[in-house]
């Protein structure tokens, strides 16, 4: 049954009788039945008595056939599932076809108990986590299931391939793997459906599984680790949505810019969200590629010019919907006439770009060309997973989604250097079919006006990033700086590794809440990776209620851990344990810095680090490798303090640092006495001596400016 990995393996040519699975590997799971659906019938094919073989098909008496091929690489196993129904006599007559959903399936029987985390599609465009202790509790449309065993983690990963998407769900009989095409009239389906593996580090393992699945399915899509981070979003921004909603207009935008200016905040980028374009808002149809003339009476280009010249905004972006507008393009409108060659009317009545790369590019190229001419330099494209709902019956998941994303990305690359926020697009056919896009929303909307929603928002982003982060940098959505949960919300953005932007209304911005995330030039002081839960939170359904949710990320060699507790919870204790943070085995000794407590201590590998957290609170900790003679904490009035340091050069009796931002510089040492500190400001010819304070093992130097060069000498 197993064969060495070969992306070009031939499709099974014919049926072989009585061939099937034995448990692989070492009894970890078995496959008991296969299913083929045709018309209104669902055929069950027993595989339990089959023997191990290279490839397999078992035919039922009702002219259905199913085949399963295993492709092995290292300790990973990919399953390619195929099924067909035979042609009935007369061959020129009506023939049964497979349904759009659940055309074929396999019943998988994992061995042992089943305490799990599932990342599943809970809405048409969003994922969220689910937890449980029994197979039947695994929700439908699960995309990634992780099970903790005694010595390692076991992962079942559903794959959306070149034609079909796969889904997993738990039943009393086992784990059901289904294959759906979304296309009418098919009499056969075949695709990579699942990858299975087990290992000690579930996050590193999942990244390798995603790469293996992409290669096995012959896709050219790129993982996040091989993509550049979009340039525009290296600085912070402001979005109109939670401030102005669909009532966005030039006057309200400029009023908020005056508010920022009064507060001494320069906003490097502005996103004009839904409501700016000329559309029929009752029927939700796009009318033209121009701005609404009543809301932007001077024209969009004039608004962009004012934002840049008067308020120092570097980039302005606009919102778009993947179908043109929420319900498509209005037939006969200016937008329709300009791009009619690229549009089609779908069975649901909507008119939108035809689902192929050429037509999608043609549509977006026309629109993006006009926007770029007005000074727009990036876009947010929303409602992406509604595309496969609109195209239902008109083409396969793989073909339509890949065509749409190829066309959209090509236009964004041509006109905006690839600066694109993908949104409402977490359905698996979108995750697996974006070619080179780097940035995507990783949760449902944050709703600051609805009390008690922060826990769901924090959990969606951190747990979804386990899978979503293999493909994209996560956009953890806009925040408010003036809100009862603004501090936890902003620390959540700091630990995310993604963009940071607010959607404050007028007179609702608190600079002191924003400044810990940014440098003087507006750069976001961000982590290097995506934020994910520590391993002891991975299977815990009670995080933020009975125990803190701990999300970790890294900047260079430092590890940052943010802890969160819901406002309705009671005070509780938490523990930071390095064994629960993958990738920390390289250093034998660590310091742990408590940002709120402004204190540091040696990390004790036997006991861990204990802390107390209060309801509605967020705590932030930094793990710093202990090196002699000093360890640099960073700019400690910033959340990601290490990101405030551009470079460090160590010598026997001194070190030289260059900063990215101003504030307080902190270092730690136990075996050296500071002799002097010399600071040379940017463009200054000579340096000047500076004072420092000592707080136990911490050395603090205040009054640092951005781009300072600092020499610290010791004896």
Record keyword descriptors for this entry:
715 residues, alpha+beta, TIM Barrel, Immunoglobulin-like, 3 domains, eight-stranded antiparallel sheet, six-stranded parallel sheet, 12 helices, 18% helix
Brief account:
The chain is of the alpha+beta class and about 725 residues long. Mean pLDDT is about 90; it is low at about 1-25 and about 50-55.
Give structural notes.
This protein is an alpha+beta fold and 715 residues long. The protein folds into three domains: 29-219, no CATH class; 226-481 and 488-517, Aldolase class I (TIM Barrel), CATH 3.20.20; 627-715, Immunoglobulin-like (Sandwich), CATH 2.60.40.1180. 18% of the residues lie in helices and 33% in strands. It contains twelve helices and 42 strands. The strands form ten sheets. The chain has an eight-stranded antiparallel sheet, with helices on one face. It has a six-stranded parallel sheet with strand order 22-21-18-15-14-25. Strand 1 (29-38) and strand 2 form a beta hairpin. The longest helix has 20 residues, at 397-416. The N and C termini lie far apart (67 Å).
